[in-house]
Structure formats: C-alpha cells, structure tokens
Amino acid sequence: MSGPVALPMMTDLPPGYPPFFSRAELVRSARAERLGIPNVPTAQHEQNLRALAWQILYPLREAMGGPIQVTSGYRSAKLNAGTKGASATSQHKLGQAADIVTGGGFSNAAMFHYIRMYLPYDQLIWEMMTPDGNPEWVHVSYRTNKPRGIVLLARRQGDKTVYSNWYGTPRWNG
Length: 174
Known about the structure:
- The mean pLDDT is 85.
- It is globular and about 40 Å long.
- The chain starts with 22 loop residues before the first helix and ends in a 9-residue tail after the last strand.
- The chain is built from 5 helices and 6 strands, in the order H-H-H-E-H-E-H-E-E-E-E.
- The protein has 174 residues and is α+β, with helices and mostly antiparallel strands.
C-alpha cells in the first residue's frame, strides 16, 4: 500500500466519473429494481456522487492497487426508508455515501485504515465484524463543506445496530 494520493480540489474535478467508477454503479440497487422503487438522483445528488468518487473512491482504488466494489451508493428517500438499519438522516440519500467491500487482493480493514489515515472523509464506519477481524463492509461519506472526520464502529446487538466512537489513531484531520 502506498502513501497519500494527491487529491484534486473540488473546483478542479473533471466532468463525469473517475476511471473504475460509474454513475450506474453508484445508483444501482437490486432492491429498488425488485420493488419497482425509483432510484434517480437529482443534479445535486449527482454532483455529490461525483465528488465522493473523485475524492474518496478513486484515490482509495489507486492506493489499494485493485478493485473496490460499491455495494450501496445513492438511495432515494423511499428506497432508504425500506432499507433495514438505514438512518432517516443517511448521507446515502444525498449521494454523499457509499458502502464498499474489497474486490480482492486486500482486506476491508486495509481500506478502512487507509481512508482513516489519508482521505478527507466526512464519516467512516467499520460495519460489523467478521470472524477474521475485518469489517463486513466499510461505510464512507464525503461532503464538500467541512468534512467532520467522524469515525464509528457498528456492531449488532440483538436485532439492532449499535454505534460507538472509534478510538484508534492516527486519523485524517483535514
């Protein structure tokens, strides 16, 4: 794994999506298709998705040297309401968040720690824990206005998801 990747300033983002990521990937939802729920982002949501892809996903993919799979990106309000465990204030509804897993060759934990140390995330969540000590997936969000740098650990407690603060260091601090 390499060191930090130079990030373009928000005003310098090229049109479209970066290599390795597409609009279709960031708005695709099997649940929405199955249930006939429209999942169409507005122009602002689209701009947020592009910023997330350029500022977080692309530099992460470059640093990891291999594929990253987006398992959940943009969610319409109706889709989000029907997603178990999704918060009513989810940044997925704004096009600012993605749930990601490794495409192979590195772990979900490696992605989590790279984001935490080097990228300008707004919120980063280690989602659940696998028997081998990795997160089941990584939730990451990005917003252009003052990313908060919030790091959380999510775990199951019965049929609920419980969040607690992450106490690891170092971390990105803008």
